[in-house]
Every structure is written in structure tokens, then in C-alpha cells.
Amino acid sequence: MAVTPPGTHPDRPLEPSPEAMRQLIHQAAERIIHHIETLPGQKLLNNQDGPAVARALVEPLPETGAPFEELLDLLDRTVPCSYNTASPGYLAYVPGGGLYASAVADYLADGYNRYTGAWVGSPGLVQLEVNVLRWIAELLGYPATAKGFLSTGGSIANFTAVVTARMEKLPENFLDGTLYCSDQIHHSVLKAARLAGFPAANVRQIPSDDHFRLRLDLLEGAMDEDRAAGLQPFLVITSGGTTNTGAVDDLTAAAEICHRHGVWHHVDAAYGGFFVMTERGKKSLAGIEQADSITLDPHKSLFLPYGTGCLLVRDGDALRRTHAVDAQYMPVIQEDPDFWDFHTLSPELSRDFRGLRVWLPLKLHGAAAFRTALDEKLDMALEAADALRKMPEIEIVAEPQLSILAFRLRPTGGDEASDNVLNRRFLDAINARQRIFITATTIDGRFLLRICALSFRTTPERMREGLEDIRAAADEVLAGTTVKP
Ligand SMILES: *Cc1c(COP(=O)(O)O)cnc(C)c1O
Question: Is the CB of residue 271 below 6 angstroms from any atom belonging to ligand 1?
Fold first, then answer.
């Protein structure tokens, strides 16, 4: 016998009664509210038992249902074994945070369950999502010709950008096409090139300068050389904030070079894009409006839960030329330029109504709240850099250009390998204190610790506590007293 929530029709268990629906959402909401309330005191790094936890959960498909409360308990037991990406102390990789309003939006969107892949399926809801895309395009300084779509993340946005550039700039037989980026580019770009059909040998990773920015002086030469060899340079991908160190390439100069060479210019601003909402960010990202296409990640610098990226293309018709394919069973595609059919602009046909996840928090809180939160992150990174600069045993390797910085214990005069071992211990000693969680990267053989301030939940106070921990961990490691956690 299927266990059904109270009030559910016993013969139609998939359609709960109003009372049962109320109970389900109430029980779920209580768990989430408790979770968010207790976030500041929760552990940040708690997955050492990962294999055991994962294996214990393996089970066959259940033939009958179980009580909801029991399933919520299972989630409550399972969630803590994780990187606590929602914690205010999460300064690792690229944090997002996860706005509560977006979680509520997902409930509403799934509850209504309207079709937003084609305009005709839900013209009003599609318009809400188009509004979101137009707002983002305007923030970037894009013209009214721009179009785009919300993806599941930056990787899919980058992939679609590479395919669109390929379709616009190269013949169907495209294997002479070459693309260019810095050695600091996010690996999703290399994956995108591969998925778009390009052998690794067609991707040129140009060295970066002392500030980890693409060396534009080498870019032109590389394109000229390839062209002389009979190849077809067609795409340059720059960074609007690298994941490694937050470096922003010179987007204005890159745009000028791309224009002169007739190649597509894509900016990967998955991490840094929404800093254009701030005065300082706008300055750092100047020139982004001249790019042919831009990747952003609302689930990073707009603080959304995971699952929402964005691609915008300056000449929106390029997306349509790349994606529109006819089929007899499909509804008529909109010819009115004001109305968008997402299935003609992106790889997907059926999709969730992810626009609501961005629309609701922007409408509910207003853009000013986001601008303030992003400004606070820029301040926080500068304050962290100031504090680290005052610690004589620490060397800042990448000053913040946006809200990421990279540092390490000053080299001891020994070899690089032993410096790296020491810094690895330093990282472990910081994270063992469980007030902040940071991660590392390796650049030119140097193991570097990085701080990425991006969660709306990270307060200046929490950052200060983290800096205390960094100081204490440095003392501990240098005194040789660390025991591996
Ligand atoms: C995170 C990131 C990506 C990939 O985005 P996903 O949303 O994780 O797929 C691409 N580029 C940069 C610079 C990033 O920080």
C-alpha cells in the first residue's frame, strides 16, 4: 500500500489534496528556514566521511511511498556532509550563496509549470524572462539588438558562444579555425572548444602578464602567424574576472584588436559580470559592451542558487541563425522582434522557467540591494588585502581586481616544492578552524591560496574572523606545530 499524505486521494496519490499540499510545503519550509537560520554556526567543511555517507544511501527503486517527514530527515542527515557553499564563511572557488527568494521562485515556477521554451506557450511569463535578459543587457551597455538566454550555467553559455562564433565566422567545414585566450582562461572554455568540434591544437593559450591578464601584444602576432600558415583565426575569448585570481583582461583593447582582425570577441564574465552594477566594477570591466558575446553567471555574482547562467549576444540574430531549426509539429515561431522564442536562441527546447528565479529577487529587493552587496564584496577584498599586507610572513601574489585575491607564505629560500608543501599545510590549518573555507590554485608551479568574497551572506565581521584565523594559522605552520586535520 502506498503511504499517502493525509487528504490525498488513495487512488490518485500523485495529486495531493489542498490540505496535503499545504502540509508538504509547510514541512519543507520549516526545514529550510531552520537551515538558513543556523548557517553561521554550521561547519564549513564536513565531507571527510563522503564515501561512507554516499554508499549508505544506495538503494533500489522503492515500489511504495514513505512518509515525507522521514525523507526530510534523510536530507537533514545528508546535507551537512558537504562543502557548506551557503555559509557566510564560504570564500572558496566562486561562491554564490543562494537567495531565498530564488528558492521560492523555483517553487512557484514548478507549481505553475508553464512552457517557456516557445513564446506562444506562455507569452507573459516569457516576457518576464526577456525583461531579465534586457535588464542584464542594459547593465552591460549592450544595444537593443542584443538577445540571449538563461542557461544552466557559465559552461553551457561559453559552449554556446563558441558554437555561435563558429557558425558566424567559419564555413561548415571549420577545422582550419583557430581560437585564442589567455593561459588563465577558465577550463570550461577549453571544454567548449572541444565540444564545438575543435581539436586541442586549434586552441592558442597566450601567456598572461604579471597581473594575470592576457598579453595582447602576443595575441596579434599569434593570429598573423596562423593566418600566414593558412589557418582561420575566428574567435578571441577574454576574461571578465578569472577564476584563479579575478584578473580582468583589457577588454577595450581586446575589442579593438578583434574588430581589426574581423574575429568574434567573447568575454567570459561568469565570475565577475554583475560587478558592472557597481561604479568600480563598471570601470574595471570597461569595454565589455563592445564584445560580440558575454557569459555571466547569476548563480555567482547575482547570488542565485546553482543552476542559472546567462549568454548575451550583441547581434541577437546571430543566436537565431545558429539555433533556429524548423519542425512540422512545432508552433509558429514569432517574427515580431519584440517577442523571443528561446528554443530558436539556445540549444534547449523544453526547459524550466528559470527566468522567475532571477526576476523575483530583482523585483522583490530591487537592484540597489544587489549593487550595495556587490560593493561590499569589493570593499571586503581590499580590506583583506590590506590586512594580509600587514602580515610580514605573507606575500600577496594577486591583488584584488574585483573580489578575488591570491596569497601565500613568503618563500623561505628553499625550493619551490617545499614552499608548496608549507602552503598546503597553511591552507589546511586555516580551514581546520571552520570559520572560513578557502581553496587554492597553482600558477606557474606556485601553490597559492585564494580568497573569493562573493556570497551576500559574508559579513565584514566574518571576513575579519577569517583574517584572524589566517594570521593564527601562519604562526602555527611556521612554528611547525600543525597537526594535519
Ligand atoms: C564558474 C566559471 C565558469 C563556469 O561556469 P559554470 O556555471 O560553473 O558552468 C566559466 N568561467 C568562469 C570565469 C567561471 O568562474
Answer: yes
Q: Is the dihedral of CA 212, 213, 214, 218 positive or negative?
A: negative
Ligand 1: nearest atom to the Cα of 152: 7
Mean pLDDT for 43-60 is: 96
Q: Report how far apart, in Å, the C-alpha atoms of 39 and of each of 84, 104, 227, 275 are.
A: 9, 18, 55, 26
What's 161's DSSP letter? H
pLDDT computed for residue 6 by the predictor:
58
Coil, strand or helix at 451:
strand
What residues pair up with 316 in beta bridges, in sequence order? none
Q: Could you tell me the distance, in angstroms and rounded to a whole number, from the CA of residue 304 to the centre of ligand 1?
A: 14
Q: How far apart are CA 239 and CA 272, in angstroms?
A: 9
As a whole number of angstroms, the distance between CA 374 and CA 145 comes to 28
Compute the distance from residue 271 Cα to the ligand 1 centre, in Å. Answer: 6
Ligand 1 mutation target, pool 191, 212, 237, 300, most atoms within 8 A of CB: 300
* CB under 8 A, 24+ apart: contacts of 283-288: 284/248, 284/401, 284/402, 285/240, 285/241, 285/248, 285/251, 286/251, 286/252, 287/250, 287/251, 287/252, 287/253, 287/254, 287/255, 288/140, 288/141, 288/240, 288/251
Give the per-residue pLDDT at 1: 43
Instruction: Tell me the residue type at 36.
Output: I
pLDDT band per the 50, 70, 90 thresholds, residue 337: confident
pLDDT over 70 (residue 482): no
Of the candidates 222, 221, 290, the one whose C-alpha atom is nearest the C-alpha of residue 250 is: 290
3-state SS, 77-131, equals HHCCCCECCCCCCECCCCCCCCCHHHHHHHHHHHHHCCCCCCHHHCHHHHHHHHH
Q: What are the domain boundaries of the chain?
A: 106-365, 368-479
The verdict on the CB of residue 278 being under 6 Å from ligand 1 is no
Q: What is the pLDDT of residue 330?
A: 87
Q: Which residue has the cell 547570488?
A: 303
For the four alpha carbons of 450, 451, 454 and 455, in that order, the dihedral sign comes to positive
Average pLDDT of the chain, as a whole number:
96
Instruction: Check if 106-365 and 368-479 are the same fold.
Output: no
Going by the DSSP 8-state scheme, the letter that residue 291 receives in this structure is: S
What CATH fold (topology level) applies to the domain 368-479? Aspartate Aminotransferase, domain 1 (3.90.1150)
Our answer on whether the CB atom of 272 is closer than 6 Å to any ligand 1 atom is no
- Ligand 1 mutation pick, 191, 271, 402, 439, max ligand atoms within 8 A of CB: 271
Residue 485 has a pLDDT of 47
Domain covering 106-365, topology: Aspartate Aminotransferase; domain 2 (3.40.640)
| CB of 451 shorter than 6 A to ligand 1 | no
